[in-house]
Design goal:
Helices cover 36% and strands 22% of the residues. The protein contains 21 helices and 22 strands. It is elongated, with a radius of gyration of 31 Å. It binds adenosine-5'-triphosphate (ATP) and magnesium ion.
């Protein structure tokens, strides 16, 4: 057996580099963080061959003094902290004094820098470790760090690098995360001498539009909440902007991009009721708190954090997001606040809801005064008044801004869902006994499920009992659903109870279950509605939280403004 030896300095750095410098993107991340810590206002990134040949970051920050240049490349040399106290309250992105040394151990590094007051710049070079003497160089105040030939001296690691396109993709991710977090700075990204991004200082919404696309920002809701030393700000994507992949989720803690289970969980919960199935919300969120309340020194790449009071952080984030996501009923594609109030009383006001049709009686009875109506009793309602029904699918309505198009089925489903949820939260879903029980053929297992789960079914507003060895009878159904196909409803609820058990179905899967139930009630396409029925639906939408999208995240209505219509007809106004 060999004896114990102290490892040479370079080898120590190469081992450390394995943790910090995984691929070109991790080099880029460290260089960008250094530029940000130096107070840069303008950051330029240049890559060659996905960063494998070269990663270069230029900044206009504070610069490094001549005598500190070599030190910047040494291990455990940092200007950012000096004591354990500093470490516990670290506000800068870097603090270990390890990044540049680790990079220099596995690549060729050129560091050129000029302090604001210095007459000119100095440069040093390091290849696989120690730096040479600084030599005078030309450069405006700021710093350029160029890292070439990553892993030139550790071929085993080089083998793990992927194609240039893949590595570039990772670098782009790093760039996007950084540029999103600091919209007030100018950024550029060049790959193989082609610009792939040039961003001037701009507000967050514009930066997000440039990097994540307009479909996200156009419908995103602004988040701004503060409590107990915590602040959450940023943009929360509406359900319509949800994606099939979780590729537009950006969470920052004190300016640092993190992948944190706790925060991701809070976000998932906040969107849970709005998004069913596998849809992933989009968001750009910034959590700020006293640096002493969060430990960033838990992961080599600093992408994980640990909160001192994890529970409080979770609750705060969850509630701040929930509030942001349902600001007022029917808040969807258009901002009503922007609409100028008009003095002309709409003639449609006469179209009240005087003669509700049977199927809508329960609906209308439950309709409460809308928040809008309460605020301004004479103003026209936000979703306006129904004009007609199109192909039995859409309601056309006129409001102050122009034309409103409503997907009848989706809107009704949302309303029924919210109603079921409210009444279940209050105890049990309101039941209505059926004059004629609905009898259907059932398998033995279904009959057994119905018998075993009678209390759960009752909570859900259903009374189902055996009508024979292979027949079940629905004797009561939720009031909001009684007019629909109650046998199909009963079948799907029984299937859910059988699969997940009553406890699980009523707790963790409650919203899926209720959404499934709501599906059975909703006005099916091709059902003719009278004008008063349509108006009743519009009023109910206004009174329902989050009625802007259906239970599956699809929009329930769209606004076409007069100017949208003018544009369609090429009418200059
Ligand atoms: N772009 C830059 N502008 C000004 N100073 C810089 C720049 N890059 C590095 N430095 C200086 O070099 C030092 C070492 O940088 P390095 O990234 O190795 O460590 P760090 O940022 O202090 O800590 P960490 O290892 O956590 O990143 C920094 O503390 C800073 O003083
Ligand atoms: Mg650093």
């Amino acid at each position: 057996m060999s004896s114990i030896r102290v490892l040479p300095e370079l080898l120590i750095s190469q081992i450390a580099a394995g943790e910090v410098v995984e691929r070109p993107a991790s080099v880029l991340k460290e260089l960008i963080e250094n530029a940000l810590d130096a107070g840069a206002r303008d950051i330029g990134v240049t890559l060659e061959e996905g960063g494998v040949r070269r990663v270069q970051v230029e900044d206009d920050g504070a610069g490094i003094a001549r005598e500190d240049l070599a030190l910047a490349l040494a291990r455990h040399a940092t200007s950012k902290i000096a004591s354990l106290e500093d470490l516990e309250a670290v506000a800068s992105l870097g603090f270990r004094g390890e990044a540049l040394a680790s990079i220099a151990a596995v690549a060729r590094v050129e560091l050129t820098s000029r302090e604001k007051a210095a007459p000119h710049a100095y440069g040093v070079r390091a290849e696989g470790g120690g730096a040479e003497r600084p030599a005078p160089a030309a450069r405006a105040p700021g710093t350029t760090v160029a890292v070439s030939d990553l892993y030139f001296n550790t071929p085993a690691r080089r083998k793990f690098l992927r194609t240039a396109a893949t590595e570039f993709g990772h670098c782009e991710d790093v760039f996007r995360r950084a540029a999103l977090a600091r919209p007030e700075l100018a950024w550029s990204l060049r790959h193989n001498s082609r610009f792939s991004a040039r961003l001037k200082p701009q507000p967050l919404a514009e930066r997000a539009a440039a990097l994540l696309g307009r479909e996200f920002t156009d419908s995103a809701l602004e988040v701004e909440a503060q409590a107990g030393g915590l602040r959450l700000s940023g943009l929360a994507g509406s359900p319509q902007a949800a994606r099939s992949r979780a590729d537009a989720q950006f969470f920052y803690v004190n300016g640092r991009f993190v992948r944190d289970r706790l925060l991701a969980h809070a976000a998932r919960e906040a969107w849970a009721e709005l998004l069913h199935g596998e849809r992933q919300p989009a968001y750009v969120l910034f959590l700020e708190l006293d640096p002493r309340g969060v430990d960033v020194n838990v992961h080599p790449a600093k992408t994980e954090v640990r909160f001192r009071d994890a529970r409080a952080v979770h609750q705060f984030v969850l509630h701040a997001l929930k509030r942001a996501l349902s600001p007022a009923a029917a808040a969807a594609p258009i901002a009503y606040a922007a609409l100028a109030p008009t003095s002309a009383a709409p003639t449609q006001a006469a179209l009240g809801i005087e003669q509700p049709v049977a199927a809508y009686q329960s609906f209308i009875a439950a309709a409460r005064p809308t928040p809008f109506a309460a605020a301004a009793p004479h103003a026209a309602p936000p979703l306006g008044y129904a004009l007609a029904q199109l192909h039995g699918v859409y309601i056309l309505a006129q409001n102050e801004a122009g034309l409103v198009l409503v997907d009848m089925h989706a809107a009704h489903e949302r309303i029924v869902f919210e109603r079921l949820r409210r009444s279940l939260e209050a105890g049990a879903v309101q039941r209505q006994a059926l004059l004629v029980p609905s009898v259907f053929r059932a398998e033995a297992l279904e009959v057994a499920t119905a018998e075993e789960n009678a209390p759960a079914l009752e909570q859900l507003g259903l009374e189902i009992s055996a009508a024979g060895p292979s027949e079940l009878a629905v004797r009561a159904a939720p009031a909001a659903l009684a007019a629909g196909d109650v046998a199909a409803l009963a079948r799907s609820v029984l299937a859910e109870l059988r699969e997940y058990g009553a406890a699980q179905a009523l707790a963790a899967r409650r919203d899926e279950l209720l959404a499934g139930m709501a599906c059975h009630a909703a006005v099916r396409a091709n059902r003719a509605l009278s004008i008063p029925e349509m108006n009743a639906l519009l009023r109910e939408m206004e009174a329902t939280e989050r009625s802007g999208s259906c239970n599956h995240g699809r929009p329930t209505w769209y606004q076409l403004t007069l100017s949208d219509l003018d544009r369609l007809f090429l009418r200059g106004r």
